[in-house]
């Protein structure tokens, strides 16, 4: 099976006619056209997938440890249970990607577009999400999100959502009141409404 770049030039050849369980470790796949590819359980550890088109690709259980996915298009990709530990996803398009149970520990997600992404039970420990766009995503609220690196924009977004909770506990109400001015710096406050 041949893997081609966006211009149609063959950049990599794999034995057989399927990429399921394919060994693509250390492969140079810059600008590869892998749109709609079936890469179940594929070994892409250390692969260079910069600018690759992986839109709608099935990457369930794929090994993408240390892979370079800078500016890759992973829109609508299925990355459930994928191992992306220490992967470079800087500037990647992950809009509407399914990242349920994905291992993103220590991953570089700076400037990544995660709008609408499903991060349910994703392990984001020590992941760098500075300048990432998490609007409309399913954010994990379990210990797998501890120690992830965020910027002020994401911190304000989380504070805003906390302040929008309805809770009858007086201590919680007091904390919400203290955070109100900070939370009202939310980048979508005009759309969602100022907290009074």
In short:
With about 200 residues, the protein is mainly α. The chain is built from three helices and two strands.
Estimate the global geometry from the Cα principal axes.
elongated
Taken as a percent bin, the fraction of beta residues is under 5%
Order of helices and strands: EEHHH
Strand order of the largest sheet: 1-2
C-alpha Rg, in Å?
A: 19 Å
Which helices and strands, and how do they pair?
Blueprint: E1 2-4, E2 10-13, H1 152-163, H2 170-183, H3 189-192
Antiparallel strand pairs: 1-2
Helix pairs in contact: 1-2
Defining key terms:
196 residues, two-stranded antiparallel sheet
Structure description:
This protein has about 200 residues and is mainly alpha-helical. The protein has a domain of about 35 residues. It has 3 helices and 2 strands; from the N terminus they run E-E-H-H-H. A two-stranded antiparallel ribbon has the order 1-2. A hairpin with a 5-residue loop joins strand 1 and strand 2. The longest helix has 14 residues. The protein is elongated.
